[in-house]
């Protein structure tokens, strides 16, 4: 199938830009494969340590040269709802591996923190850095050279990107990502948001707020809004690292377990010892990355992936840019409306036709590359189907011909919007990104005086004091990766939403992040260069006239350009924000981390 011209042009640009780095990556992948991943490459002492705790049958298998060993990298913990279901997965995977004639071992665990728990707390300063910690922790687990393939158990914000970076670093190994699925639908997300705003206005108390939050986040599984966690799952499927239709099956169901068993057996079927060798480094190439970008845009996915996808691609020797994303966004139609871009949650999306319907629509309309390699085989045809568990057998059936709910999931010929809603903003303040799929047209242009804060608490205090009574653009700076680790500023959403509802023109400009579920208030985020690097955002003063035009893709200081350029760069003593809750351990990360548009990574 032929892709549209813009899709091809962006892909070709990535190929040219990445020629040298991709070649180096693939050469290293081939060298790693040639060196071997079999137990025979280990000394007897090495091997004895590696299977000392195994049962007799597994030990006998691993003592030979032919048995396949599957490494499990798990982000299990039972505090986080999305990862709690993983408690039982290793046993399921081990049994499925034995049925396939192989062995499975937990190679290592990685941390999994939840931005929902740490929002507005000190621990949030570790959130972005946890991605690279996860990549390193997974690498430690796989470094024992005991494994022919790996499965990765992870769901949420930084966990999946970190695991992908590690999987691509060990790109000679086949890798399959196994999700746990979303929790069942609870309190509607718009009702939860309404209660949050009432609480900010003092119209309900903490008891009412906690009740609403508890009814929304109420059981095992991923949060049901379309933030970074569920964007991760969409990406893993459309990029070919999941089994078809695996992303949004609820935990604790027979279908969920059947998919986990099938993923295990498939991982063992595509090793270098067989005839279907499918290493992760070949699954992820420029075409699969572009497919992921298209999927992100077509679903109104998380802004966090403007950084994560850059870092993930870089791990495979591929160079993508915010400009690539913005060019694609101009042509990729919005086909899904899931909260905060609509009232539905991911369960409604899945019921309406889900990933199979979405992928078929995008592929058939020329927005996806079909000539890709996936863990399930060549091409995307299998990914236009959805799994069924009938009479204790996993089968795949074509996705429905029509959407089960056209208000949630629509066809490519009748999109909710003609563009994906992710824009690159440029101008004399630097570069930033904005997600406008949930921003009403009348709120996409804001020209107003700046109100400068050096923390989200400062804006909240001004809101509570009744100081924010006229149009303004909030500038929250010294929130970038080098400054304090680039926390999400989710606590700003209710206050800014209230002010906008009151008829005040508001916008946010920050070198920090906003939640993957950020919505109706225009927010220019990930500003680079950041204030701590002396970026222009560090020269903005209270009262400066700023203009944010999301449609035109501009963000500018309006005033005397020479006077602005001559201003001294503001500084901030951040010492207190570098200690406590483990933040002192990440001093090296703050020194090494790159700019947001390069993935905010310590690796490149």
From TrEMBL:
UniProt-annotated binding residues for [4Fe-4S] cluster: 156, 223
Reactions performed catalytically: 6-phospho-D-gluconate = 2-dehydro-3-deoxy-6-phospho-D-gluconate + H2O
Dihydroxy-acid/6-phosphogluconate dehydratase N-terminal domain boundaries: 70-381
An example Gene Ontology molecular-function term: phosphogluconate dehydratase activity
Classification via InterPro entries: 6-phosphgluc_deHydtase (IPR004786), Dihydro-acid_dehy_C (IPR042096), DiOHA_6PGluconate_deHydtase_CS (IPR020558), ILV_EDD_C (IPR056740), ILV_EDD_N (IPR000581), IlvD/EDD_N (IPR037237)
GO cellular component, one term: cytosol
Top EC class of this enzyme: lyase
Pathway: Carbohydrate metabolism; Entner-Doudoroff pathway
Record EC number: 4.2.1.12
Keywords in alphabetical order: 4Fe-4S, Carbohydrate metabolism, Gluconate utilization, Iron, Iron-sulfur, Lyase, Metal-binding
Pfam families with a match to the protein in the record: ILV_EDD_C, ILVD_EDD_N
Cofactor(s) recorded in Swiss-Prot or TrEMBL: [4Fe-4S] cluster
GO BP term, pick one: D-gluconate metabolic process
Residues in Dihydroxy-acid/6-phosphogluconate dehydratase C-terminal domain copies: 408-600
Highest rank taxon of the organism: Bacteria
Cofactor: binding details: Binds 1 [4Fe-4S] cluster.
Family under the similarity heading: Belongs to the IlvD/Edd family.
PANTHER family documented for this protein: D-XYLONATE DEHYDRATASE, PHOSPHOGLUCONATE DEHYDRATASE
Protein task: Catalyzes the dehydration of 6-phospho-D-gluconate to 2-dehydro-3-deoxy-6-phospho-D-gluconate.
The protein, known as: Phosphogluconate dehydratase
């Amino acid at each position: 199938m032929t892709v549209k011209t813009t899709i091809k042009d962006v892909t070709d640009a990535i190929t040219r830009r990445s020629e040298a780095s991709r070649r180096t990556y693939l050469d290293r992948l081939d060298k790693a494969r040639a060196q071997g991943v079999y137990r025979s490459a280990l000394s007897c002492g090495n091997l004895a340590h590696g299977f000392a705790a195994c049962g007799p049958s597994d030990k006998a298998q691993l003592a030979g040269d032919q048995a396949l060993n599957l490494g499990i990298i798990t982000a299990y913990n039972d505090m986080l709802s999305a990862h709690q279901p993983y408690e039982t997965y290793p046993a399921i995977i081990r049994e499925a591996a034995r049925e396939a004639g192989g062995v499975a071992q937990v190679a290592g665990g990685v941390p999994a923190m939840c931005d929902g728990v740490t929002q507005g707390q000190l621990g949030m300063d570790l959130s972005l850095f946890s991605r690279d910690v996860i990549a390193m922790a997974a690498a430690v687990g796989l470094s024992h050279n005991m494994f022919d393939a790996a499965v990765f158990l992870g769901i949420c914000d930084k966990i999946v990107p970190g695991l992908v970076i590690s999987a691509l670093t060990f790109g000679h190994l086949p890798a399959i990502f196994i999700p746990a699925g979303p929790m069942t639908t609870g309190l509607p997300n718009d009702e939860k948001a309404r209660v949050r705003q009432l609480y900010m206005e003092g119209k309900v108390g903490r008891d009412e707020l906690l009740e609403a939050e508890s009814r929304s986040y109420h059981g095992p599984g991923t949060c049901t809004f379309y933030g970074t966690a569920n964007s991760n799952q969409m990406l893993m499927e459309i990029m070919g690292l999941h089994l078809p239709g695996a992303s949004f099956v609820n935990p604790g169901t027979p279908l969920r377990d059947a998919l986990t068993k099938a993923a295990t057996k498939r991982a063992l079927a595509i090793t270098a010892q067989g005839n279907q060798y499918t290493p992760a480094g070949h699954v992820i190439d420029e075409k699969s990355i572009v497919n992921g970008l298209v999927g992100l845009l077509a679903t109104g996915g998380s802004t966090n992936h403007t950084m994560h996808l850059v870092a993930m691609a870089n791990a495979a020797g591929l160079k993508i840019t915010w400009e690539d994303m913005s060019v694609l966004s101009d042509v990729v139609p919005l086909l899904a409306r899931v909260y905060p871009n609509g009232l539905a949650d991911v369960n409604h999306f899945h019921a309406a036709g889900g990933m199979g319907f979405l992928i078929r629509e995008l592929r058939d309309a020329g927005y996806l590359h079909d000539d890709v390699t996936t863990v399930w085989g060549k091409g995307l045809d299998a990914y236009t189907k959805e799994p069924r568990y009938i009479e204790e057998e996993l089968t795949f059936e074509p996705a429905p011909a029509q959407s089960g709910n056209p208000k949630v999931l629509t066809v490519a010929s009748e999109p909710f919007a003609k563009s994906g809603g992710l824009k690159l903003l440029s101008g004399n303040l630097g570069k930033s990104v904005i997600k406008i799929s949930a921003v009403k047209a009348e709120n996409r242009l804001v020209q107003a005086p700046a109100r400068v804060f050096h923390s989200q608490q400062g804006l909240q205090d001004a809101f509570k004091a009744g100081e924010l009574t006229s149009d303004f653009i909030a500038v929250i700076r010294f929130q970038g990766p080098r400054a304090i680790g680039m926390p999400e500023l989710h606590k700003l959403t209710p206050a800014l939403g209230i002010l906008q509802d009151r008829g005040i023109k508001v916008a946010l400009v920050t070198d920090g992040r906003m939640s993957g579920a950020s919505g109706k208030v225009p927010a220019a985020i990930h500003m680079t260069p950041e204030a701590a690097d002396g970026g222009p955002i560090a020269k903005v003063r209270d009262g400066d006239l700023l203009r944010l035009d999301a449609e035109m893709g501009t963000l500018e200081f309006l005033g005397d350009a020479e006077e602005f350029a001559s201003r001294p760069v503001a500084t901030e003593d951040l010492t207190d924000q570098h200690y406590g809750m483990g933040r002192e351990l990440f001093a090296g990360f703050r020194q090494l981390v790159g700019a947001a548009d390069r993935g905010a990574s310590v690796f490149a």
